[in-house]
Amino acid sequence: MSLSLLDATMVGIGAMIGAGIFVLTGLAVEISGPAAIVAFALNGGVTTFTALSYAELAAAIPRNGGGYAYVREVFSAPVAFVMGWTRWFTYMIAGSLYALGFASNFVEFGHIYGYPLPGPPVLYALGAVVTLVALNALSTEASGRGETAITLLKIAILGVFVAFGLTAADAGEFDPLFTEGALSVLPAMGLTFIAFQGYDLIATVTEEVENPQVNIPRAILLSVAVTVVVYLFVVFVAIGTLGADGLAGAGETAIAQAAEGFMPTFPIVGTGAALIAFGAVFSTISALNAVVIGSSRVAFAMGRERQLPARLGRFHHRYGTPLVAILASAVVMLVAVLVVPIRIVGNLASLFSLLGFIIVNYALIRLRRRQPNLQRPFEVPLYPVTPVLGIVCNVLLALFIDWFTWVLAIGWLVVGGGVYLLLSRRDDVGPAGPPEIQEPEPIDPAEGADD
What we know:
mainly alpha, Amino acid/polyamine transporter I, 72% helix, globular
């Protein structure tokens, strides 16, 4: 165990305050106008219901794997596989979103300083994925400590943005609020929900956190609270200074362009827009690092329980990291960066998050019924109202995501079904029910050399 409460909290905040707020704010305003701030506020409320469920489950079942580990505890092997398969994909597709967000803001950063960067942005996205995969492959502790430092820096930068912006924001930009109609908030919520995924990544590294039964619930709830407050202030300032039309036209660099109108010039860094672009670069990098950690741990947990090839569930003999799981996750991220448009990436990540959260809330209800005497260091308040509201709200948001995204999601589930059947025939898929917690088998040096 090498991650502290602060480190674990920063994994969640780092994943949430990333490409979502910088890249999707302009797209959300394009859908719902000034009411985009309502979409962010409601998403904060919706995600809190599920965060509470995660906190209780993480304290009661302190295993790596997050939502997959909890579903594995109370459902049959096929259901657990579907949960793990979708959560793994969610983190990987979110990684491509963050990588693309990094690339667009990195290029913008170069333009601000008058140094146009050579080559297409996708090359920088690919480079970011490769770099962070290498870091995570070498050391969990190094990637965790780096996540903490980068996240604290970007919170400070957004704090500067908000401090100056509150003096310049015009509340009149929110009147009228529902310029695109009240129902436009729902598709905006569906698009931006991925910005509230991240706290669940904390649960994927449970076994690597100090005193997890206490620190994991605290880290989950702290990360959600901090993120929601930061989002609301940032969106208020962005709309209040640049206006809904200006933000909608700015697209993926909306926050940086909003900063141009009110932030002063800073020593060394330069203009306010440069500072925000700098913060966006760091934000998307930290979010990408967090999902590299999370995606590999889900694959690791599934491999350890033989719901994916067993080699995914082993630590490397030299580096002490789930190297094969990290590399497998990286492949899907790289492919998504190359072939999937950013809006579709955002919708896919949001849809799979919503579906996974529905199952996690139901897993909490089922575990309470099946094991009422299980030790629970943290318990969801107002049970069962809280998880039921989580299920209902997540279902509602999922229904407002476009049909094409649903087709792609079903396609991934069909691929998963084929993988499950193939492994079942090879007797690689474990039986229903949770496995005993045990130390993962290290990779043989000969195998490690091949990896």
